[in-house]
Structures are given as C-alpha cells and as structure tokens.
Amino acid sequence: MKKVGVVACYSNYNYGSMLQAYATLVALEKQGYECEYINYQKKPTFLEKVRFVPRFLNMYLMKEKWRLLDKRIRISRYPEIKKGDQMRKAAFRRFGERYYNGKISDPYVGYKALKTSPDAYDAILVGSDQLWFPAGLPTNFYNLMFVPENKRKIAYSTSFGVTEIPFYQISRTKQFLNRIDFLSVREKSGQELIKKLTGRDAKVVLDPTLLLSKEEWADAIPDTNVIEGEYIFCYLLGSNEQHRSAVKELAQKTGLRIFDMPHIDEFVPGDLEFADEHLYDVDPAQFVNLIRHAKYVCTDSFHCCVFSIIHHKQFIAFDRYSDALMASRNSRIANLCEICGLESRRYKGKVFEQILEDVDFDRAEKNLAEKRKESFEYLREGLR
Hints:
Blueprint: E1 3-7, H1 15-30, E2 34-37, E3 40-41, H2 46-52, H3 59-75, H4 79-99, E4 108-109, H5 111-114, E5 123-126, E6 152-158, H6 170-179, E7 182-185, H7 188-198, E8 203-204, H8 214-220, E9 231-235, H9 241-254, E10 257-260, E11 277-278, H10 284-292, E12 296-299, H11 302-310, E13 314-317, H12 331-340, H13 351-356, H14 361-383
Parallel strand pairs: 1-2, 1-5, 3-4, 5-6, 6-7, 7-8, 9-10, 9-12, 10-11, 12-13
C-alpha cells in the first residue's frame, strides 16, 4: 500500500479548511492509500527571518494581517464575544482530536527537518484550499519546494485565491509550478493563471469536500441535530450589511429564527444585533449538521455552499468581496455554481423570491458525479 504525505491546512481554525483537509484523507483512504498530514512546525533561522522581510511589502499579506489584528482588538472590548471566540477555538481542537487521530506525522521542527519528511512517503500531495495565496510563497511549504526532484509531487484542487501573481513573485511561482509533476486546481482562474505562467495545462477538479457523496459524508460525520425545529442558518464571513438586511427580510417573511456564527474572519459591529441566536461552541462536524438540518441557508462561504449542495438545501450565495484587491476570490463560488448548474443560487437582490425557487439538484448531482469521476481518475493517475 502506497503511503501519501498530505500537505494541507488541517489545523487552521477555519471550518472549510478543516473539512477539506479531513475529506482529502477520507477520499484517499477510500482509494486504498495510507495517508497522514505532514506536521511542519516552523522554527526559522536568522537568515530565514531576514528572507521573510519582503513579505511585509505584500499587499495581500498586509491586508490579512490587519484584518486579524483589527478583529482581536475589537473582540477584546466584548468579554462575552471573547469568551465565545475561545469556545470556538476549543471546538476546533476537539474536532482535530477526534477526526485526525493517528493521521498526523511526528513533528518536523524547522525547515531543515521538513526537508527530510519526504523520505517517509511514496508521494507528496498538496491541496486543497487557497494554499498558493501569494502571501505564503516565502515559507516554501505549500508549494512543495521542500520535496526533492525525484519524489512524486501532486497538487490536488489547489487555489491561488487571486487571478494575478505580484510581479516580484512571478519567477518563483513559475519555478515551483514546474517542479510539481501533476497539477490540478479548484477554479478556472487558477487553470488560466498556470497556463499563462508556465504553458502547462492544469486540470480543474472538485474540492475534496465534493469527492464524498451525501451518504459518504453521513458515514464520515454522523447525522445529529444541533438545533430543534426549523431555522435559517446564516454563515457570513464578510461585512456587507446589505446581505444581513436580506437575511432579516427572509426571516420576517418566513417567520423563522436566524442562527448565525459571527466574528469568524472579522469583527462586524452589526452582528451584535443581528440574528436570534449566536453560535460559538460549534466544531466542524456540528457545522455540517447545522447545514444538514436548516430550512434555508444564507452564506458567502464557499464550503457552506458546498455542504448546502451536497445536502440539497435551499440556499443563497452572496459575493463576499467587493474591493478590487480581493474580489477575484469570489470566483470559487461562481465556479462551483457553474459546475453544478446552480447559477440561480447566486444572490440577485431578492432573497425571498430566489430562495423559494425550485432547485434542480438532480442536475447538480449528475454534473458532480461526472466531475467526481474525473477527479478520482486524476488522483489515481498522479498516485499510481
């Protein structure tokens, strides 16, 4: 049995990241591979720290750093929210202890140790998520630069999160892309970017969470009720007040309660008064079950859309980003809806009328079945 080292954001306190990392292992094991996450713990040398300095000129990184700092400062002013945020982090750790048990390598501390890790595997696979976001390039982890030339390297459904690479990173991006034996991406924008940079034809494949059917997800994560009765599950990562107003309108017209999970990526003041109940003590398994049992789902999250589609939920997908720097990251939801033939689920200004429209989930299932077959064929070819 071949052993695969998986490079993924398995410990990031993010529902989508942890679920796609878990789905990657489940899908690979169903194909007969032995897998584990490569546990890299950074311990940069002085020279490496010096090399990281140019990162602070990266506009993407600075925007993300400021967002996280702003969130911490704002949350610190609200003891109850701070307590809830700590409960949420504990829930993420709880999920990891239960679902990653025995699936994480011994730690490789420092980059020198990391370079020895490929010796333990027949192949190294990186994916999925926005692991090639420009801000992360200098770490040389998610781009597999630590893996030697003679070791098979596979990128599965990896995303750049942008449509253009900063000019000063083009050369290094070309270098790491050309070292990877099998290239696949999650969005067409990534496919086009790789073609432009290297001339190579990368394959667009499904996000790992979509490799598992509704029934397989029921096996992977048991079906349990988190909330009794009918409700609207609202999962908004962005700060758009218009989207929140639309959800309130839906609640008023349906008479249903709104349950949300606020302050995940940023602190949004309007969320203090939004929703009937805020949920904090929720791990990724409960996140899936909140979607499973919701009457309606309103979201700007890619993975919340994924699980809404898998579980045939009446959902509305908002565009999270509006500023020019980050707007290209909306493409993942657009591409998902296009693949499934569910473009009608993208918000067009009338949430109540839209969410009640019939959804052709049979067509979506047919389209996903075809893409699932292609995606597994790609994996088998890359890992043969």
